[in-house]
TrEMBL record, chain A:
Taxonomy of the source species: Eukaryota, Viridiplantae, Streptophyta, Embryophyta, Tracheophyta
Single GO molecular function: guanyl-nucleotide exchange factor activity
Protein name: Translation initiation factor eIF2B subunit alpha
Protein source organism: Hibiscus syriacus (Rose of Sharon)
Family matches, as SUPFAM superfamilies: NagB/RpiA/CoA transferase-like (SSF100950)
Pfam families: IF-2B
Cell compartments where the protein resides: Cytoplasm, Cytosol
InterPro entries xrefs: eIF2B_alpha/beta/delta (IPR051501), elF-2B_alpha_N (IPR042528), IF-2B-related (IPR000649), IF_2B-like_C (IPR042529), NagB/RpiA_transferase-like (IPR037171)
UniProtKB/TrEMBL annotation, chain B:
Presence of keyword Heme: no
Keywords noted in UniProt: Cytoplasm, Initiation factor, Protein biosynthesis
The name this protein goes by in its record: Translation initiation factor eIF2B subunit beta
InterPro entries found in the cross-reference section: eIF2B_beta_subunit, IF-2B-related, IF_2B-like_C, NagB/RpiA_transferase-like
Homology family: Belongs to the eIF-2B alpha/beta/delta subunits family.
Region annotated Disordered, chain positions: 148-175
Organism whose genome encodes this protein: Hibiscus syriacus
């Protein structure tokens, strides 16, 4: 049994020398690229925009993505279809909120295009743009305007929890601090804008802090199971690899948007031994796994997480096999939700490509995310520190009391 | 300061040779040593707190390295660092309340920059407090100085004010040192009275005619049981002997001397007897940040048995045993391996332990670990000097007692290799 030792790296090298394995890149290429472009071309209103962006940013999409993996090629394809989305949404939003609501959503969408920018950051930047454009002369006016803008943002994509969380966090910041600290409205305003613009840095810094905290938990010779693509998880693994830790990673495939392929690709670049699993092989491989590491779309008040579909079952399997489940997520993903069960979270729908036509009578489960109760989580790595799930509600209560 | 140096070396030797028995004694002596280090440290006019933190950290790192398994040392070092930060902060706040705003440049000076508008006193106080508090959602958007920069900004409090008189400053520096020593004295007091504080709560937990099980010997448990006895509770105690050191025998003897009906059982009989037990009360070596317990060997087994029969598993822990680390931390994974002579008689087994035979190593190996890890889900309740707490609440106590900047104390030492 080699999974407690670092010798698997040597084994692997020997194996590679013995028989030249097929190039992993070519493997990826040979798999039929999912028709992401098609699905984006005709967006249905009931499809979660949040998960569409995620798919566009994180999924292995086309062969040209592989050709220039570092460059954010998805921007170009995004631009074409986002105009369609905007065209669809704008009349609805414009009807209610008028000119301003339109601009905040526009702003948000343009921020969202950046693959490295989290959704909450985009929301906060969009709200900062509202402050900039605002004609308000008192704090109260500004707050009302912000509230309106954030409401229209939230209404634009009800499925995105981090959008809601980001809006809430910023509104809370505006109401709680600035009014107390400053006598002068203009200085308060400029301060708010400055803080919001710095928020992008905060989010990057948060990732680094999390990576530093988390890498202590990665010991030499361990096997880590990851699910889906998460920037934080990637940062954690990258930091650990840079610190010369010997570990290997099992990546789930992450159907249907194949986010796991992307992650395995990135890890292969870092020279981390990585193995790709189909989503249904999790229980089969769990005895080799030392820890499960996942990101989160949102951390809810119970201390549970909302994450990509499949996280719940991985957590269940690892719980029954007594493996720790770690969650790496930035603290602005804390959301004021208390889901009681899976269906309590509003479904975020997406298209699923089965490769073959599905008879119209057959129903398809299209939800993109599930809820993992705190019972199955061991620890949460956030920029606030390493937390047990019960700390989350404490933090949220402190902020929103 | 040659005399502190001698004291430190003496204590280091004791730690290395495992001369100090028990975490309470270790904690107390560490605190006393740090007190003398603080009183010997010559404090400059500026940056007094930073100087103190520096010297305490320097000594603390060596102490921790001397015996990384004794977590109480690290805990006390971190507590003292936290005390220095806190006292510095309260002094700064007090000074700020007295002087008018524009004359004082505050803690956040270097972080905020000069273009910032004048903040109100309350805001300054809040901001400076936020540097001490662990990071939270509230401060996420606020201008929190860089993670690494925190020690400098918070400790440089008030020293940049060139306007106040130097006489005022020197009195302040003396005041800071005085306050810190006062607070460390309080800490020492707390450590030495923690048994009584915990024992006071005994009547709330032990009821008439109950059967209590414990393993090995812990002074906290002894005092706890005796306190209940003194309050006229009549109950029976099962003592598992705690092999291989058999300290349970001593505990049983002590309990009988105090007039408590006691039953001695072997460690392996715990599961056989647990169905008759109403509560398991044990001591701990250290309590981790996630609510897990580093405990004398054998306690994991007891905890599992207790869980099987839904018997409450209560852990008594003085405040010096609270450790802000997580059990995956390498320091914590270290277990102490004691001498094999506790396990078996060398004379009888000397043939099996012959290093000269065959492959050069004996065929018989003896491993004698000292500690067990009990995961938080097996613990029903922690009783500390501040009351009873759920395992998931331990992080809160830890956030109160330690500042986040000090957690990395010996990471530097480990990454230095």
């Amino acid at each position: 049994m080699w999974w407690r030792s670092a010798s698997f790296i040597l084994d692997r090298q020997q194996e590679q020398n013995a028989a030249v394995p097929p190039n992993p890149e070519s493997l990826l290429l040979s798999s039929p690229p999912p028709s992401m472009a098609d699905s984006l071309q005709n967006p249905k209103p009931d499809i979660s925009a949040y998960y569409q962006t995620r798919a566009a940013h994180h999924a292995v999409v086309t062969s040209d993505w592989l050709a220039q993996a570092h460059a954010a090629v998805s921007i170009q394809t995004d631009d074409d279809d986002s105009s369609v989305i905007d065209g669809k949404i704008a009349p609805a939003a414009g009807g209610r909120g008028g000119d301003k609501a339109f601009s905040v959503i526009d702003e948000f969408n343009s921020w969202r295009k950046q693959p490295d920018l989290a959704e909450a950051v985009a929301a906060i930047r969009a709200l900062a743009a509202v402050i900039k454009a605002s004609q308000a002369t008192t704090m109260m006016e500004l707050e009302i305007e912000l509230k309106k803008a954030s409401d229209s943002l939230k209404a634009w994509d009800t499925t995105s929890i981090s959008l809601t969380a980001g809006c809430d966090l910023f509104i809370r910041y505006v109401t709680r601090t600035s009014a107390l600290e400053y006598e002068d409205f203009n200085s308060a305003r400029s301060r708010l804008i400055e803080r919001a613009e710095k928020f992008g840095e905060i989010s990057c810094k948060a990732r680094r802090i999390i990576a530093m905290l988390c890498q202590d938990f990665i010991f030499d010779g361990c096997t880590i199971l990851v699910h889906g693509f998460s920037r934080v998880v990637l940062e954690v693994l990258r930091t650990a690899a840079q610190n010369k830790k010997h570990f290997r990673v099992f990546c789930t495939e992450g159907r249907p948007d194949r986010t796991g392929l992307r992650l395995s690709n990135e890890l292969a670049k870092l020279d981390v031994p990585v193995k790709l699993l189909i989503d249904s092989a999790v229980a089969y491989t769990m005895d080799e796994v030392d820890m499960v590491l996942v990101g989160a779309d949102a951390i809810v008040e119970s201390g549970g997480i909302i994450n990509m579909m499949g996280t719940y079952q991985i957590a269940l399997v690892s719980h029954s096999m007594n493996k720790p489940v770690y969650v790496a997520a930035e603290s602005y993903k804390f959301a004021r939700l208390y889901p009681l069960d899976q269906k309590d979270v509003g479904p975020a729908l997406r298209t699923i490509d089965f490769g073959v036509p599905i008879p119209s009578k057959v129903e398809v489960e299209k939800s993109a995310r599930d809820y993992t109760p705190p019972l199955y989580l061991t620890l949460l790595f956030t920029d606030l520190g390493v937390l047990t799930p019960s700390v989350v509600s404490d933090e949220l209560i402190q902020l929103y009391l | 300061m040659p005399d502190t140096q001698a004291l430190v070396n003496d204590f280091l030797n004791k730690l290395k040779k495992r001369k100090i028995e028990g975490s309470q004694a270790t904690a107390k002596q560490t605190a006393e040593l740090l007190r003398s280090v603080i009183s010997q440290t010559r404090v400059p006019y500026t940056n007094q707190a930073a100087a103190l933190i520096q010297s305490v950290k320097a000594v603390g790192e060596r102490l921790i390295a001397a015996n990384p398994v004794e977590l109480a040392v690290g805990n006390v070092v971190r507590r003292v660092l936290h005390i220095i930060r806190e006292e510095d902060l309260s002094l700064t706040a007090a000074a700020m309340a007295g002087v008018n705003l524009s004359a004082v440049s505050d803690d956040e000076d270097d972080a905020d920059g000069d273009n910032q508008p004048v903040l109100s006193a309350a805001a300054i106080a809040a901001a400076s407090r936020s540097t001490l508090r662990p990071p939270s959602l509230q401060t996420l958007l606020e201008d929190v100085p860089d993670f690494a920069a925190v020690p400098h900004t918070s400790s440089s409090g008030g020293d940049s004010e060139g306007k106040s008189k130097s006489a005022d400053k020197s009195s302040r520096s003396r005041k800071l040192k005085h306050d810190v020593i006062e607070a460390v004295n309080e800490l020492i007091q707390d450590i030495s009275t923690c048994h009584e504080q915990i024992a006071e709560q005994a009547v709330e937990h032990i009821h008439q005619n109950e059967v209590i099980l414990t393993l090995g010997s812990s002074r906290t448990v002894l005092e706890f049981l005796c306190a209940a006895k003194e309050k006229k509770r009549s109950f029976r105690v099962f003592v598992a002997e705690g092999a291989p050191r058999y300290q349970g025998h001593l505990l049983a003897k002590e309990l009988v001397m105090r007039g408590l009906p006691t039953t001695l059982i072997t460690d392996s009989a715990v599961f056989a007897m647990i169905s008759r037990v109403n509560m398991v009360i044990v001591g701990a070596h250290a309590v981790m940040a996630n609510g897990g317990v580093i405990a004398p060997v054998g306690l994991n087994m007891v905890a599992l048995a207790a869980q099987k029969h839904a018997v409450p598993f209560v852990v008594l822990a003085g405040i010096h045993k609270l450790c802000p680390l997580y059990p995956h931390h390498p320091e914590v994974l270290l277990n102490e391996l004691r001498s094999p002579s506790e396990l078996l008689d060398f004379g009888e087994f000397s043939d099996c332990l012959d290093f000269g035979s065959g492959i050069g190593a004996p065929l018989l190996h003896v491993v004698n670990p000292t500690f067990d890890y009990v995961p938080p889900k097996l613990v029903s309740l922690f009783i500390t000097d501040t009351g009873g707490h759920n395992p998931s609440y331990m992080y809160r106590l830890i956030a109160d007692y330690y500042s986040a900047d000090d957690l990395v104390l010996q990471r530097r030492a480990t990454s230095g290799n």
